[in-house]
Every structure is written in structure tokens, then in C-alpha cells.
Amino acid sequence: MRVIGMISGTSFDAVEAVLADFLQEDEVLECDLVTHRSVPYPDRLRDRIAAVLPPASTNIGEVCELDVAIGQFFGEVAYDLAKQVGGEPVQLVCSHGQTVFHWVEGDRARGTLQLGQPAWIAEATGATVVSDVRNRDIAAGGHGAPLASVLDVLLLGAPVGTVRGALNLGGIANVTVLASGSEPVAFDIGPANALMDAVVTSFSRGRERFDEGGRHAGRGQVDAGLLASLLDEPYYVLAPPKSTGKELFNLSYVEAALGGTQLELDDLVATLSALTAETVARALIGCGVTEVVAAGGGTRNRVLMSKLRERLSGVAFRPLEDFGVPEACKEALAFALIGYLTGSGLRASVPSCTGARDASILGSITPGDKPLLLRAGLGVPSHLVVRRAGPSAGES
Q1: pLDDT tens digits for 319-337?
Q2: Are 244 and 317 within one domain?
Q3: Same domain as 168, residue 30
Q4: Is 215 left (phi over 0), alpha (psi -120 to 50) or beta?
Q5: Is the bond leading into 391 cis (omega within 30 degrees of zero)?
């Protein structure tokens, strides 16, 4: 099955897309990763998304317009990717869309909202579209996150004697903990880049969107008092499974923690970088992790990664590329995998990772121009093998 997987994450800077061919034989699922792209949002669309995210208020008209605009943009990305590759038609597109609200009360997720109307993607590509992939897991008592845990479980596993942590450093940091003989566990740790992105964008009035390479953090000094205050956040002591997002960790959160105290940008970013490193390290140490496989934009922040390695001095770090997957396209590939599983009538959630009662077939289906032909008799695969089938299409 030829599938496109797409997502815009909590940093909402670009649509990440992969095109992959899946072939399942018994319990082994083979994946040829044909190409992947990162397509930045147009500035106007990105600004409109930023304007509705918590703690901002909005109106239902703007939500409707954004649902259409994001769906149209995702449709363009999918169409261009399929056209560029050519060959066999794309049978299915799995679109995560853009999260604009993740509703959590205490230790329970109540709902989640992703925009990006799938009808526009189906119209642009002619393919069947799987969307709204998180809510079925939430309806089953889970958090609808981290859904990339299904990729981690099938791709990475864990050798005997190793506790492997599949760490993703996006806007929010999350981890899947894999240990031989134990059920996998996954959860959102807390902010990875979210708070740093927010203060850099605010201080620079939008001229900068993130701390590129850790430049600001590298020049700054950590404010020990502010760091200690931030580490008192009750979310960190909740037991997994758990999830969070920018509903909690946003610019207003930082401003409240500062309480009117003025810090230079470099010092503030250095402190927030230290917060990410410390909360991630505490979470991994608490889970007994002995090896980290890291992915996400935060891996390109040299200061953050240096702090993590220093704090986790006894832990081995491995790149995701060792397993055939470029770190930049992990989440898009995860949703391509979820799309394949849903399109095959197979359950894609991992209950021990999301907290759901049972595994679910995820998402809602928007039909394409042709019927999606399912193979009878398939079972949920136990192992995923990824091969790089072609060069990356890169950014556009």
C-alpha cells in the first residue's frame, strides 16, 4: 500500500510529509521510505494558527476558515509530493492535521481538536484520507498520545538487558520506554522547545521563531531561582500515562513564573533550556533508561543536547538514522504507519502507552476516488523494517 503521512506538530512551523510503500508478510511489516519533505507554512497561515492557540480566544468563524485553509495546504503538500515521485498512485493519505486544543483535566484527557479538513486532501489527491486519529483512543479512556509509540514499539524494540527510550523533542517532549519482557510505556514529559520558542518569538517580535542551534541559551546564564520555581510544576509528578500541550506550557505560563521579574532573553532561554534538560533527564532516569534514541527539532539544538548528555552521563545516545529513519520525518512516518494500519482494518494504538482500555482502529475515513482494497487475514504486525528507497525531497 502506498501511503502519505503528514503532520504539523506543536511548533506549527511546517507540514512534515513522507511517502512510503508498505508490504506486510505475516507479522513483519516492510516499509520503503520513498521520500520526505518539510514544507513551511506560509507566514499568514502560521500567524493565523498562532492567533487561535491557547491562551488566546477565538470565534467559530475563524475555526471554520482555518479548518479549510489548513486542509487546503495539506492537500497541496500531498498532491505535490505524489506528483514529484510519480509511479504507483497513492492509495491513502493519513493526515494528523494541526492541533489547536488538547483538553486535559488532571490526569485524564477529555478531548482534542485538530484542524485540516480532510475533504480538501481527498479532493486534491483522489486518495482515501484517514484523519482525526487521536479521538478514538481518548474515547477508549486514553490520552490520544503519544501515538508515535506504535512506531517505536514496532521499529525499535529493546535488546535484552537494555531499557531503550525513544525520545522526541518537538514543542513537547515525549518518550516511549521499551524494555524486553515488559509492556511499553509512553507519556508526554513536558516542554521541549515550546517555552523557548514562545519567548524567542515574543522578544524578537516574530523575527526569530526558535533558538536556532541553541545560540541564545549558549550565551545566557541559568537563573537558579526561576528554574527551581518552574520545576515545581505539578504536571511533572503525575504518573504516566499522561499528556500535555501548549494549553499549559505557553508564553503566559512563563510570564506568570517570572512574576514581573525582568530577565535578558539569553538568560531566560538558558533557563528554559535547563528546564527541558532537567525534566527530560529526571523522566528517563526514573524509567531506568539505559539508551536513548532521539528525534525531533530539539536534537538540532546543540546546547540542549549537550545539557542532556551531561545530565545523562551514563546513558548511551543513538540517532534514529541507525534504524533507517531520518529524525526529521519520524512523526510523519508514524502517521503513515497509522494510516496503513487503519486502512488495513488493524488496531494502531498501544494501550499501555496511551492509557486506553483497549487498542483501537484509529481515525475517520474520507473516501477517495477509488475503493480501498483491503487484504483479508492480516494481523497486527509485531516488527517493522524501514528501508530508504530514495533521496529526501528536503524542504520547499
Answers
A1: 999 999 998 899 999 999 9
A2: yes
A3: no
A4: alpha
A5: no
